[in-house]
Amino acid sequence: MKQALITDMHANREAFEAVLEHAGAQGATQYAFLGDYVGYGADPGWVIDRVREFVAQGAMAVMGNHDAAVVQGAGSGMREDARAAVEWTRSQLKPEQLDFLAKLPMHQQRDDRLYVHANAFDPGGWEYVLGRSEAVRSLHATRQRLTFCGHMHEPMLFHLSGTGKAGDFAPVAGVPIPLLSNRQWLAIPGSVGQPRDGNPAAAYAMLDLANAELTFHRVPYNIEGAAQRIREAGLPDRLAARLFEGE
């Protein structure tokens, strides 16, 4: 049984479609969506509707900070481009789509797994897991053995031993990583819709539940199409340009 871990689509239909196709070809039978379905991109309604379809079929979904901003209004700390995208998105969504975002939980648990957008220690504070110290803080905040987060737009994997020793891996796309049972793990799949690690390909991860393995994936997609949609929507051009740069 394989579960696709998908996060930070950011209204990028082209990237999300490519990832769903790839995950299906890889044998995904379950899906977990880790937030930020909207913001930056030009297809928020389409992305929300696809996630809603998966949730209706049993998939898990949690709220991200951009989802919350679209529901509640952009906060004062949001950057100008992000704020513009949030306000534009609010004007595009139907009431039932906004209602779906508003009712998303901050986190979900399943067996020994925790699914959350930002972190386990303060899900609604939206603090980033930037490195080992934040990862350890997050792992200390939960009894779950596996934690899956979004928010950081870069693939990351951290672990914590029973003796308190922390470590991290630099994931290599397509290479399965055994999730040893004597450790806690925190995985960040990276962003589908707006990667920021210098690689413009969409990022997601696949959890093999039967074999206790995690595989990170990168999926090329039609970046030009996504960028053109952003430009046509009248959103800031920088939001289109950064897709090509993976930043």
TrEMBL record:
Pfam families: Metallophos_2 (PF12850). It comes from Roseateles toxinivorans. It comes from the Bacteria. GO terms for cellular component: cytoplasm. Belongs to the metallophosphoesterase superfamily. YfcE family. Residues 1-211 form the Calcineurin-like phosphoesterase domain. This is Putative phosphodiesterase. CDD domains: MPP_superfamily.
